[in-house]
Each structure stands twice: as C-alpha cells, then as structure tokens.
Amino acid sequence: MGFLKNIFGSSEPKEEKILPWHALTQLSQLDEIVKRSKAKTQVIFKHSTRCGISSMVMNQFVSAYDIEADLDLYYLDLLNHRDVSNEVGYKFQVMHQSPQLLIIKRGTTVAHASHGAINEIDLGTFV
Length: 127
Hints:
Number of strands: 5
Radius of gyration: 16 Å
Oligomer: single chain
CATH superfamily: Glutaredoxin
Number of helices: 4
CATH architecture: 3-Layer(aba) Sandwich
Structural class: alpha/beta
Strand content: 15-25%
CATH class: Alpha Beta
Mean pLDDT: 88
Number of domains: 1
Shape: globular
CATH topology: Glutaredoxin
Helix content: 25-40%
Low-confidence stretches: none
C-alpha cells in the first residue's frame, strides 16, 4: 500500500499554512508602507487571481515562507485593485508584472522579482 500512497498521495488532508497577510486594497496604505519601512521591512506580493502561473508561484511562496521572519507582508489582488497596483509601480519605481514581489526598506525598493524568480529571493537577507 505504501507504493500506491506514494503515487497517488495520501488521503489525509494537508495542514494549510496561513501567512500573516495584510490586504493591500487602498492607495493610502502605500504611504503607511513607506512610513513603516523606516523601521521594519515591508513586502508586497502582487497576485493575479486569474493566472495559473501567479497561483503556482503564490503556492510555492507560501510553502517556503518562514513564519518567523520579522517583516510586514502585504497581499495585493491586482485584478480587484488595479489602481493600487498601478500606483505601486509608480511609487516604488518598478515596471508592472504579475506575479511580482517587492521588498521595501527605508522608503525605497531594495529588491523585486517576478514569476519564478520570486521564490529565489531570500527574505532573511532583507530583515
């Protein structure tokens, strides 16, 4: 039976990992992110809920995320909050991509990545 379990997976439900997301839904939050970044690293994950690649990268990010990281983590549903997504690009001087991860420290973008490169970033180096 162990062989079939390895092929088809376990019927036992996996424990779902929940990250400490802050929903990024309003333009005014961007000024707050800049302000908070003076003392603590801020991370924005821009996600397209209709894109399979974005969903895959999001799942990988969640699986690899270190819950103990001392940073604020923001989730931006760019389809429902296009105005916020556009302003993120302008305010933090990055070209729009999806999925996209931005790391903000001391008011500026210190790193950003899109698609598979998101999961290559070691968030610990920015804390």
